[in-house]
Automatic annotation (TrEMBL):
Name of this chain's protein: Extracellular solute-binding protein
Recorded GO CC terms: periplasmic space
Single Gene Ontology MF annotation: polyamine binding
Keyword Signal part of the UniProt annotation: yes
InterPro entries: SBP, Sperm_putr-bd
Organism, scientific name: Acidisoma cellulosilyticum
Gene Ontology process terms (BP): polyamine transport
Domain of life from the UniProt record: Bacteria
Length: 358
């Protein structure tokens, strides 16, 4: 028998997950777990799937969404009873819980719960009526990025609004990110900004935007061809580009930055509840993060674990690729994408759609 790094990690992960007992593994054999997530984002990493399938005897089927609204629509329109686990952003957990799309999580079955960073595990947005509805997984910043061959390093979001940068900006097509970024630029409360001022600011920003991007692939193509030379960007993707030698600087501006968290939620009416917990336990384990971040598959977009033990276990090179140090040690203003009511989120989404359509 030959032993590879991945086989050893898989064995270690199995030992670390007492919920996946051998008898239970036999029970999982022949089951198929359907996972809804972003493409190229951990859940569909080939090594990840192989490790989980080897551990459980089950198979994994990936389905993809292209926005948080798309995820919720996927469940509303036939996904219930077919999709087992999903990857909502913190800000969308409340909507999914209120609409009975997600079921409560028994945190005693989540082996990493005590290891999770408290600002996420204690966040009210993952709770409804005293029950937890999602398990925080990873975090990152959507902050300021520039091509250093073209621009000096800025210190403020104001650079995106500078008329000199007309047609050079790539901006993430997400209503919460857009409104919070504009609020930081204006000096407004990012959780409760003056929406009239935000609308005016976003309309002004639109004049400079060359690309509203929705995936890392969108950004990569536009940035590497010179179509865009600045914008807002995910920290994990920024770290990967820097590590690969691209002329990119990633800045946490003086006026603040947007921080997000992604979570795992279990879909109501899943026929594979125990297998769903096994998936969450594996995907939140230090062994998993060591594999995914240390040896990611092609095109994988990475993020910083919410599991503090997993962060400590990362090789320094992997932590640097994630921009983990700058993110976790940032002392400036943080606009955490959480605590937004479904009603407010609906208003924000409509405002953003109106801005883009104008």
């Amino acid at each position: 028998m030959s032993f590879t790094r991945r086989s050893v990690l898989a064995a270690g992960a199995l030992m670390a997950l007492p919920g996946i007992a051998r008898a239970q593994t036999a029970a999982f054999k022949g089951q198929a777990l359907t996972v809804a997530s972003w493409q190229n984002y951990g859940a569909d990493d080939a090594a990840t799937i192989k490790m989980f399938e080897d551990m459980t005897g089950a198979t994994v089927k990936n389905v993809y969404f292209t926005s948080e609204d798309d995820l919720l629509q996927m469940l509303r329109q036939g996904g219930m009873g077919k999709i087992d686990v999903v990857l909502p952003n913190l800000e969308y957990v409340a909507t999914g819980a209120q609409q009975s799309l997600f079921q409560p999580v028994d945190t005693s079955k989540v082996h990493s719960w005590s290891m999770l960073e408290e600002r996420f595990s204690a966040d009210p947005s993952i709770r409804l009526n005293g029950q937890v509805y999602a398990v925080p997984w990873v975090q990152g910043a959507t902050s300021l990025a520039v091509n250093t061959d073209v621009h000096p390093t800025p210190t403020s979001w104001k650079v995106l609004w500078d008329p000199a940068n007309k047609g050079k900006v790539g901006f993430f097509d997400d209503p919460t990110t857009a409104i919070m970024t504009a609020a930081l630029y204006l000096g407004e409360d990012p959780q409760n900004p003056d929406l009239a001022k935000v609308r005016t600011a976003l309309l002004a920003l639109k004049d400079n935007v060359k690309l509203f991007w929705s995936s890392g692939d969108d950004w990569n193509k536009a940035f590497t061809t010179g179509e865009i030379t600045m914008g807002n960007l995910w920290s994990g993707l920024a770290g990967t580009l820097k590590t690969n030698g691209h002329p990119l600087d990633f800045i946490f501006p003086d006026d603040g930055t947007v921080v997000w968290g992604d979570t795992w939620a279990i879909v109501s009416k899943t026929p594979h509840l125990d297998l769903a917990y096994a998936w969450i336990n594996f995907l939140t384990s230090p062994a998993y993060f060591t594999q995914w971040i240390g040896s990611p598959g092609p095109n994988q977009e990475l993020a910083v674990p919410v599991n503090t033990d997993a962060v400590k276990a990362l090789p320094q090179a992997a932590a640097d690729k994630l921009m983990a140090g700058p993110l976790l040690n940032y002392k400036g203003k943080v606009a955490l994408q959480t605590g937004i009511s479904p009603a407010a989120l609906k208003k924000w989404t409509q405002l953003w759609e109106d801005v883009k359509a104008s």
